[in-house]
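The pair is quoted verbatim underneath.

:::
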Amino acid sequence: MARKRTSVARSPEYELLGNNLTTARNNLGLSQAEAAEKIGISQGTYSGYETGTRRIKLNMIKRIAEAYGVTP
């Protein structure tokens, strides 16, 4: 049985990471769809990272940092 998704952030850390992702993306002038395409994931997955409702693995943090030209 599939797990039920929730719109509540999983933890304050994921919420903070999501806020940082949003800021970095906005600083580059990218939409969520453009950022997701640049990273090679769906816009829905990327949105979950920004809202803190989707867990993000370390390798994805590294991919995003590389795409944004920042350090993890």
Q: What stands out?
A: The mean pLDDT is 89. The CA atoms of residues 28 and 68 lie 8 Å apart.
